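ok trying again, last paste got cut off:
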Amino acid sequence: MKIKRSNAYSKLTLISSMLLFVMLMMVPFFASENVLERLTVLFIYIILAAMWNTLAGFGGLISIGQQLFFGLGAYATIRLANAGIPPFTALLMASLLVGLLSWPISKFMLHLRAAEFGIGMWVLASVGHLLVNLDPLIQGETGTSLISLNTYNIEVRRILIYLVGLVCMAGLLVGLFYLLRSKAGIAMQAIRDNEDAADSIGIDAQTVKTWFFIFAAFGTALAGGLWLAQASSFQPKTYFSVQWTAYMIFMVLVGGIGRFEGAILGALLFFIVETWFAATGVWYLVGLGAVAVFCSLFLPKGLWGLIETRLGICLIPVGYQVKGHVLKDGTFKEDVFNEDAFKKDALKKGKP
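nice, full thing came through this time. structure:
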């Protein structure tokens, strides 16, 4: 039996991703301002989709209150910048602070199960929104601006935001990839499939879920700070709106929940649809809802799940792949691999 953690497609994807990253780093030298702004938005969408997929797709923690961390990331950036910290440093520090804040939040939220967790996160986001409104600096729903960004020339600022967005997106995706391939990643997926069974083989479910919760909060806060840098203005009702979580759910559902490639594909599709149809107003939102319902009913694994099933392609494997085994008569036969059983067996042996 051959066990692999990569394949020809994944090696090709790795090389292609590195080339794409270098090309994207060079885009500011020849692209227009509008292209830079739109690509920055795409980077933010990919971060949001990947972070929500981390919780829901790989951990089974379906949150409808992730706008809490998105809004807090932007708010903390405003606060730190107002204290005299350079805006881009403030953005990173704010994300780290929100990540730290998510630790005590996880202590009581992760005791909730299923719908209780999702609704609890929504309530918490509403509470966070109200508390931020009380800050005199924010002036209620009037909001404020990230004034310290004005120290940069507008063209330099646009390029810096683009580059920071690109590096943050790439860093988070690489970090998530290695996290999912680690022992903790396998444990998280085992918890998603059956928490009681995972507990019975010695997995500390609470600790594993806490680490993933913090990682998702940090990434979502980083996206909030990047959106603030892009938009320059901060209004609590905009950043703490449930629409952000709705976008995350849409991207992951359409792309393929629980699949690394699915979140990226979903973000790309959402970005294209928004670019072409956002001007149609309410029909744009109706169309998004219809597509989400269609995928839920007829494509439960999302578009990438369909591609993966039909073509057998896995570009970014985060689990194990078994090619086959040798029979008693010496012949080699392709296996129908039970990945869940293999994960549990690997965890028992302490070999992720």
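cool. The longest strand covers residues 3-4. The chain has a mean pLDDT of 87.
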